[in-house]
Amino acid sequence: AIERTLSIIKPDAVAKNVIGKIYQRFEDAGLKIVAAKMVWLSEKEAAAFYAVHKERPFFNDLVRFMTSGPVMVQVLEGENAIAKNRELMGATDPKKAAPGTIRADFAESIDANAVHGSDGPDTARTEIAFFFPEMAIYSR
Ligand code: CMP
């Protein structure tokens, strides 16, 4: 089915100047960028976005990292978009990410891991709504 998923290019990858290279991978895989913006998250915003991880030991580091610089946020749309994006990203820990995936090629560590992608249909809906009102998504 045609799905939408939320993708974030994290501060490490933005700083490395590889937004275009990552966008190319989305487009080459048949995913369309139907909404996009650059944002520098406040601590409050990052904590709210990652609220599901609030009790995890890495939560404070995660919020600190995600507020360390601007991020590029986009909605990807296409056949099987949620799983397809997760395949393109590779495993959360870049050391475990398959060769040729975004994290294998551009990420440094499990914290600075270049990209975020929604992990299922429910989170995709919530995460998209966190950043974009429906009228800001230009579905084609
Ligand atoms: P992301 O997909 O953005 O979702 C939560 C983030 O927490 C994850 O990517 C990682 O960058 C970060 N993180 C740090 N440590 C861990 C861990 N042990 N397990 C999962 N995520 C972690």
UniProtKB/TrEMBL annotation:
Pfam families: NDK (PF00334)
One record GO biological process: CTP biosynthetic process
Positions of ATP binding: K10, F58, R86, T92, R103, N113
Necessary cofactors: Mg(2+)
Keyword vocabulary terms for this entry: ATP-binding, Cytoplasm, Kinase, Magnesium, Metal-binding, Nucleotide metabolism, Nucleotide-binding, Phosphoprotein, Transferase
Main location: cytoplasm
Keyword Magnesium in record: yes
InterPro entries reported in the protein's UniProt record: NDK-like_dom, NDK-like_dom_sf, Nucleoside_diP_kinase, Nucleoside_diP_kinase_AS
GO MF annotation, one: ATP binding
Gene Ontology cellular-component terms listed: cytoplasm
Domain (Nucleoside diphosphate kinase-like): residue spans on this chain: 2-139
Keyword Kinase: yes
Compartmental location: Cytoplasm
Entry's EC annotation: 2.7.4.6
Family: Belongs to the NDK family.
The protein's name: Nucleoside diphosphate kinase
Gene name of this polypeptide: ndk
